[in-house]
Amino acid sequence: MQLGQFVSQDWDIGPDEVLIRRIDIAQMTTDSQVAPPPSMGAALTADEHVTWQSLTAGSSRQQEWLLGRLALKEVVRAWAQERGHQLASNDVEIHIDEEGAPYARCALLSGVGGPPVISLSHNSGVVVAAAAEPGSLIGIDIEYADRRTQVLARALTPMETNFVTAESASVLDLLVAKEAATKALGVGLRGAVARWPVASVTALAEGLLIEVSSASDSGLVLPVLVLHPLDTVLGICYVAPDIDAA
Ligand SMILES: CC(C)(COP(=O)(O)OP(=O)(O)OC[C@H]1O[C@@H](n2cnc3c(N)ncnc32)[C@H](O)[C@@H]1OP(=O)(O)O)[C@@H](O)C(=O)NCCC(=O)NCCS
Predict the structure, then answer these.
(1) Within this chain, do residues 168 and 234 fall inside the same structural domain, yes or no?
(2) Nearest protein Cα to ligand 1, atom 12
(3) Residue in 107, 139, 134 with CA at minimum distance from that of residue 20
(4) How many domains is the chain built from?
(5) Per the count of CB atoms within 10 A, which of 58, 74, 107, 174 is most buried?
(6) Whether residue 47 has its Cβ less than 6 Å from ligand 1
């Protein structure tokens, strides 16, 4: 893969502070079922190649993992490009921590305070990756709008059920907000829908602002912008760096 080439596309959506890129899987012309095509393979570091090979060959998970790595690397590259740094994809290492949260390493970005914080979401048709300045919190989640939610609806709190009954938000809006908020904290929802109550829903011109209460820190409320682009529901949780704590 040559410097400057991207598989993903810039997605101009959400807060100005957050960079988002997307890969539309249907538009991919390459077949990554057997091996990552040369252009994608060159994007991976040696360690990432090992991980790719450890996944079941030809599985949807293997493809999902590969596209996720590409999207994450490219959102870091785009973030760096905005700061005057031209990076190749294999300059950026994507790791996951013990909770499964992705983070980037890139020695070439030490001069700009290190790589951005990142987040990833995929469904069967699209992969989205987000990046924001180091020290901030970022969590992203995307779902198809027609996802079934009957089971989830039973896990809502009475207040959340009221939001749905009043048509302030759909069950899926609330779920996406919880997924994005928990990813921003690096813990992930892991099915614990009721542990992360929605505190408020506010209608905005572009979508909804949904505030999710933290299960681990009773004073913490995470703001999630929930948007409805085309046939999807997209949640973006962004919290600026805490300047006082720096
Ligand atoms: C994994 C989870 C964070 C999001 O899952 P999801 O909404 O179904 O899937 P998405 O595509 O939106 O997000 C998956 C990505 O979230 C990221 N992620 C995983 N754990 C994370 C965490 N603790 N914090 C932040 N991001 C996380 C990863 O990048 C993952 O993609 P990858 O595995 O290819 O690297 C989790 O909340 C979940 O719901 N998992 C479903 C299955 C489950 O309950 N598993 C329990 C395992 S103990």
Answers:
(1) yes
(2) 121
(3) 139
(4) 2
(5) 174
(6) no
